[in-house]
Amino acid sequence: MQHVSHFFDGLITPPEGLAKLLDDGFPLFTREQIEEGPGHPTWHPYGIRFFHHFRGEDGIADVDRYFENETSRFSYLKKRFLELRNAQHLLFVLSNSQNNLDEVAEETELGPFHFEQRHLEELKASLRAFFAKDYDLLVVSHEEKVVDVEYDHLHILEPDSSEWTGDKRQWAEVFRKHLTIHETLNFV
N or C end of the chain: which has fewer CB within 10 A? Predict the structure, then answer.
């Protein structure tokens, strides 16, 4: 498999916000929808935080200054995301396993990044409706970051000491287990 960038890379996206975005037809943000914070530029009404965007080399967020650049970038990435509708097989991965998410939650006033059953069900239904297909949604988390979740494709990782990448061996095992089940399929 070859890694390519996609729309949600580097974004902090609550499952319920992603579901609403898909239900709304996946519009591109307008300037009025991007607020300066809290903590990081935020796309309302979806609660999506731009953790690394709308910034120059100094790392300081300035939505007005970088809006045109980011609009261009995300227009392209949105087009690529919409092309996924043509894929025969697709695997969506939702993870709250980054070890720095507690710090991000504090900075952005998002509260804890816990997955709840109802949000996962809403997201799965929104993905199905948006893509008109029933693709797999792989959920990866830590035990303390799921709340009453019973989900076939839930993978619990053991704690590790990485900042955000996670233990590559554990991630490889997650994909090995999942893709072995579907080994005859070619995923995008």
Answer: N
pLDDT, tens digit, 9 for 90 and up, residues 125-155: 999 999 998 888 999 988 888 887 877 788 8
pLDDT digits (tens, 9 = 90+) for 10-57: 888 899 999 999 999 999 999 999 998 777 899 999 999 998 899 988
Ramachandran angles phi, psi of 58, nearest 5°? -75, -10
Which distant-in-sequence residues (6+ apart) come within 8 Å of 164 by Cβ?
A: 98, 99, 100
Residue 36 has phi, psi (to 5 degrees) of -65, -20
Q: How far apart are CA 26 and CA 104, in angstroms?
A: 25
Q: Is the peptide bond before 159 cis (omega within 30 degrees of 0)?
A: no
pTM of the predicted protein model: 0.87
